[in-house]
Amino acid sequence: MSSPEVLGQFIPLHYHYDMLRDNYRMTAFQQAIAQTVRPGMTVVDLGGGTGVLSYFAAMEGAKVYYVERNPELVAVAERFLKMNGVADRVTVVHQDATQFVPPEPVDLVTCEMLHVGLVREKQTEVIEAFKANYVAAHGPKLPRFMPEASLLAIQPVTQTYEFSGFHAPVPLFQPPVAQVPGTTELGMPAVYQMVIYDSDYVRSVDWKGTLTMQHAGTLNGWRVVTKNVLAVLVEQQAEICWHNQYLVVPMEQPQEVAIGDQIEVQIRYDFCSELSDLWDGISEGPATSLVRKRVAA
Predict the structure, then answer these.
(1) Could you tell me the pTM of the whole model?
(2) For domain 149-296, which architecture applies?
(3) Phi-psi region for residue 32, left (φ > 0), alpha (ψ -120 to 50) or beta?
């Protein structure tokens, strides 16, 4: 049975502390906030955790509302924000982020309740609730959101599932880099859904697509890629992005594939649900050879 604790409302403190050590995550958000926030702006930090995003925004001269439901994290953030000299610029709000309404219009909303495939944590639910509450209080003009969008993709791979001689095809998290030991890419990632946070979106996936193999090998896993566009820099014609960890989901029936083979894939699951809903929601058909198709035609 799902509960707020399971779905990420109360992630253990040590997990938040470990996130502070993730230089890729920290640098990406720090750069995005530095490029986006200007002195005098007002920022809301939904699900503020240890307060690090609030700190980044305050250091750029913003007035910040830090919002967090977990009382342990509220206490930690209050201590850290004071320790870092920005407590006078950050208002700490102990409240569920889905119910928070800022007392004034704001310029930017940061929310990092992100997990692979947008499952487990409540990014889409919280942003959807915030937008409805905000429009009711302050009118239709929405603030900017960070991240601005999330792109979800799936990629065919050959994955090694050997652990000290023990064969166990299990879901595996990976660092978000293309080349990972034990993983061989068989084709390019295919985007199966895009969520733009300042627009209307659905909180579920129901996608069917065809992936073409660019390399021969044993197709025995799907790599789920989650790219978060933190900030689009229009003048520079650039973007600042951060990827969640990749997730490789094993296939029940591995298939031998050749270059040019095509696989039809279907993905169905709800955002903010269990991780198992994501990997259980992926199904595929048999490999179809393009050469055989041309001969048959």
Answers:
(1) 0.92
(2) Distorted Sandwich (2.70)
(3) alpha
Q: Domain ranges in the chain?
A: 13-112, 149-296
β-pairing, 108-111 vs 42-46, is parallel
CB 67 within 8 A of CB 134: no
**Domain 13-112 grouped into CATH 3.40.50.150:** yes
For 77-112, how does the pLDDT look when each residue is reduced to its tens digit (9 = 90+)? 999 999 999 999 999 999 999 999 999 999 999 999
Q: Which two tokens mark 19?
A: 């996130």
Is the CB of residue 16 less than 8 Å from the CB of residue 73?
A: yes
Question: In Å, how far from its chain's centre is CA 254?
Answer: 28
Q: What is the pLDDT of residues 250-275, one digit of tens each?
A: 998 999 999 999 999 999 999 999 99
User: What is the rounded distance in angstroms from the CA atom of residue 219 to the CA atom of residue 106?
Assistant: 48
What is the spatial distance between Cα 206 and Cα 149, in angstroms, rounded to a whole number? 18
Task: Give 55-104 as a DSSP string.
Answer: HHHHHTT-EEEEEES-HHHHHHHHHHHHHTT-TTTEEEEES-TTT---SS
Q: How far is CA 104 from CA 43, 57, 145, 228, in A?
A: 10, 17, 16, 27
